[in-house]
Write a structure and sequence with these properties.
Shape: globular
Number of domains: 1
Largest sheet: 3 strands, antiparallel
Distance between the termini: 49 Å
Strand content: 5-15%
Number of strands: 3
CATH class: Mainly Alpha
CATH topology: hpI Integrase, Chain A
CATH architecture: Orthogonal Bundle
């Protein structure tokens, strides 16, 4: 991460970054592999180091749903969760389009390569303090917003040890907390 605090990408930034990576820009050739890896990070909420080690066989059909069972590289914790059918279809189509067999790693890139291309694209677009981790934070923020601001749900999904870590991820700061308190007044 370095000396700066990684920001959460907004939905608009997410879309613009992915589209720019796919079509290329001034200093970067088009790169569907990097774009796909970041899309998966934003839709699965797992770290980029875990994304780049996925195979299609990592996702198991479990009844009428798909499930991903991984051991997180950073924490060595087991993580099992549902993969939406749309995300599985997206990954599956990417593998078909790129002749990737189900037992092969989906990505041939390194974490550092993803970071380098993302940095070039963000510099081109004028975005600061965005890294691959911004896409995990984006996932967390979207889960939080789309599930009635249930911070405990996000904490469990990301396997954080404390709520304060989760609050940092989704960018809940003092201003939002103060506004929430103010908006909750029930004086008679």
């Amino acid at each position: 991460m370095g000396a700066y605090k990684t920001k959460v990408v907004t939905k608009e930034q997410y879309t613009e970054i992915i589209e720019t990576i796919k079509k290329g820009c001034l200093n970067t050739r088009p790169n569907d592999e990097v774009a796909t890896a970041l899309v998966l990070e934003a839709n699965l909420g797992i770290r980029i180091c875990d994304i780049i080690n996925l195979t299609l066989n990592s996702i198991v059909k479990d009844g009428n749903r798909y499930r991903l069972d991984i051991i997180e590289q950073k924490t060595q914790k087991k993580r099992t969760f549902t993969v939406p059918v749309e995300v599985y279809n997206y990954i599956s189509q990417y593998c078909i389009d790129n002749s990737i067999k189900s037992k092969e790693k989906i990505f041939t890139i390194t974490e550092r390569q993803v970071q380098r291309i993302l940095k070039k694209v963000c510099d081109y677009l004028g975005y600061n303090d965005i890294s691959t981790h911004s896409f995990r934070k984006f996932y967390a923020t979207q889960i939080y917003i789309n599930n009635n601001y249930n911070i405990m749900l996000v904490k469990e999904l990301l396997q954080h040890a404390s709520i304060s870590t989760t609050q940092e991820y989704i960018g809940i700061g003092t201003e939002e907390l103060e506004r929430a308190i103010q908006n909750n007044l029930n004086l008679i």
